[in-house]
Amino acid sequence: MIANWKMHKTVDESRAFAREIVRRLGQATLPHQLIICPTAISLWAVGQELIGSSVMLGAQNLDLGREGALTGAISGYLLHEAGARWVIVGHSERRQFFGDSDALVGQKVAQAWESHLRPIACVGESRDDYREGRTISVITRQIEALLAEASPEALRTLIVAYEPVWAIGSGAVPDPVQANDLAALIRQMLAQKIPDDAPNIPVLYGGSVSSKNIQQFLRQPHIDGALVGGASLQVEEFLKMADIGS
Length: 246
Ligand code: 13P
Known about the structure:
Elements: E1 2-4, H1 11-25, E2 35-37, H2 43-50, E3 56-59, H3 76-81, E4 86-89, H4 92-97, H5 102-114, E5 118-123, H6 127-131, H7 135-149, H8 152-155, E6 159-162, H9 176-190, E7 203-206, H10 214-218, E8 225-228, H11 235-241
The protein binds 1,3-dihydroxyacetonephosphate (13P).
């Protein structure tokens, strides 16, 4: 289960959340791998709190390149040095508001791997695409860009999150069986380039996941976990979703 905090929580709030999670987890054996993705500015502080725990740290985006005259950019190497081991790429908010194209998302997957980060690549159709029956063609186009830009080595380290844009932050969720079919399609497409590894690539569902509906997605055979936004911001709800609530 991956918590994507987006542009929420100050450094202090992020640190306090991480400290509380580590305290509450104690020695518990987790049913799922947990990854927390705070803002870039809180990565280091959260990473320090997570040392010695099984909760892992991820970033929300990376820029291409290693270092250079790129004002405001943050490379995968810097994210790794700050403690991140995972990075979200191609989130629909990046595609929508920051102009991340399909090809750039593929390049970022390749760059993540170069920087020793594991990429969490997001795909998903918009509300219009969904209404007009273009879901499969959009997902196909987005996955094809990953296959075109990233090497088999990079693809083997991938997690894919299927996040329908219309489900993000809306309270609306797709039929879990349809989400499962799309997860199966994603895996099938990955098999074109990594036939032996595709069955083991984790495919997650994301979009308005909460403790109330997470199980209906996790029950699906092709869905291995969840990428959670709003519901991951509260410790109690986070623990409930991770199946370790008191
Ligand atoms: P919500 O869980 O708030 O709908 O956000 C989903 C998401 O975009 C996670 O990356």
